[in-house]
# Entry
Amino acid sequence: MRSISIFGATGSIGESTFELIIRAGGAEAFRTVALTGGQNVVRLAEMARILRAEVAVCADPRGLPALREALAGSGIEVAAGAEAIAEAADRPADWVMSAIVGAAGLVPGLRALRHGKTLALANKESLVTAGPLLMAEAARHGARILPVDSEHSAIFQGLVGEDIAAVERIILTASGGALRDWPLEALANATVTEALAHPNWAMGQRITIDSASMFNKALEVIETREYFGISPDQIEVIIHPESLIHSMVGFRDGAIMAHMGAPDMRHSIGYALNWPERLDIPVARLDLAQIATLSFRAPDMARYPALRLCRDVMRTRGLAGAAFNAAKEVALDHFLAGGIGFMDMAGVVEDTLARLLSDLCLESDVMTLEEIQGADHLARIRAGEFAVACRISQGRTPRIDA
Ligand code: NAD
Ligand code: MG
# Structure
């Protein structure tokens, strides 16, 4: 019986993973080792009972009493906190889903790789933050990383049976997010609610805002480089409002392999779960005659500074990815809290990177976890300072504390 763990089980990707596991036979077909969640301990406990998990871990220690109560008499172990989540990743499982949001996903993913598992990686932040470290750990321990981000799953599928040396370019598609048709001058005043109205994909809150700002695509450009090892100038971004082509691989003979399907994450989660086989996945089938047309347009770089910043990060390499991701997470927290405007997020990230380039040797080739965490920490402090300065200069009052 195959053993599995899901990190971030209660989130958008986690729920879809859970659903596919249930459809594939649930506790009769899989031995569930660990399930982890954040604050929603009621749902975490419910999932743990259904899959008869060995251990359920919530990130927030304040949730532990409620988790313990919800699982009383079940025989399922309970724990809480970041270290407990990392320890859960030390429990061997054949297949591990990494679907925590943000840099918090890095350590559990790394620990799972050290046990030679297959890591289905939704947590793109860990590759942006520590790509070379993650890849080196996977190679050292004979572990495999399977992409779950839809674009990277599409590219991975486009490369089956191909030689990476024959790849001329990779074209990442982007929906453009909720604000794609807004006039540029209106973006500064976009609210959280407006940025959350994604036209095609139902996702977690943070990635939905990142889609509107294109920070998500910026992370994905770096993610592409880390997964496939190709040069940054071979990676292109194109806006494709229908989100039906999930990405494309262009080869040296001019051929382009495009991966199409409904915008439904169960596609790429299911591919990673069943790889190398393809099994039935309950996603909508495309009616091409009804769709009739697909459209594309080049991204306007003035609207999306994130797409420029990710190029600077790739040029710098080393710890720049960790600083970029951390600054972006802080800027997003401040935007969500009402402290800074939508376009200020890019400003905060840009200022942080510029400052850290002089403070810290971001180009360092050394990439220990400690160094990465140090760069992440410093970037969070600087980004927080810039965000507060920005808030004060604009006379904003945050709704909640970022
Ligand atoms: P989400 O916010 O819906 O869920 C995140 C999960 O992580 C939840 O279980 C939450 O409780 C948990 N969590 C949050 N903070 C945590 C912390 N500090 N420590 C431990 N656990 C914590 O997010 P999501 O949309 O499911 O995204 C998860 C990951 O997958 C992200 O890295 C995202 O970029 C990536 N991803 C998501 C989608 C999508 O469609 N949702 C698509 C591609 C990639
Ligand atoms: Mg994606």
